[in-house]
Design a protein that fits this description.
Blueprint: H1 14-26, E1 37-39, H2 45-54, H3 56-65, H4 78-100, E2 105-107, H5 111-114, H6 132-151
Helix pairs in contact: 1-4, 2-3
Length: about 150
């Protein structure tokens, strides 16, 4: 039976929603190739913020846009950074736990969370979504994890 992390009390709706999503995917009609599900961790949002803050162009955009979707603005405090990091880690633990309950599911083990980030990995349109370079970096890292699903 799954336990919800005490470190993430506001994450409680996240676990059931994740469970429902994986249950739906797991119950898709069978095909000749069994359905396998790769669940990616949530990116390290505090590192995302730090990378943008350190890049002059991205920092200017960060200041102008009012911040990232996770509420980290240009002037985020160490306390805010710590809170976002703690919440992200708690949500990633939930993803790992929920995925472990589904035999055809593989959690990436934090691969996306640990991906070394660079400002060029984010679209200059909003600095929140991955650019092509960021998509390539993520795909390369996750492909190594996906091979575990495909061949082992």
């Amino acid at each position: 039976m799954r336990t919800t992390s005490a470190a993430a009390p506001h994450s409680q709706p996240f676990a059931p929603a994740s469970e429902r999503g994986l249950t739906v995917l797991s119950k898709l009609p069978p095909t000749k190739i069994p359905t396998k599900i790769l669940v990616l961790s949530i990116e390290n949002l505090t590192e995302h913020w730090r990378v943008l803050r350190a890049d002059p162009t991205a920092a200017k955009a960060l200041k102008g846009y009012g911040g990232l979707d996770c509420s980290l603005g240009y002037a985020a405090t160490p306390k805010q950074l710590s809170q976002v990091r703690s919440r992200t880690l708690a949500l990633n633990r939930i993803l790992a736990e929920v995925c472990s309950e589904h035999p055809l599911c593989l959690y990436d083990g934090g691969t996306y969370f640990r991906l070394p980030l660079k400002a060029r990995y984010f679209s200059p349109a909003d600095y929140q979504h991955l650019s092509l370079a960021g998509q390539r970096a993520l795909a390369g890292a996750e492909w190594k994890v996906a091979l575990t699903i495909l061949y082992y």
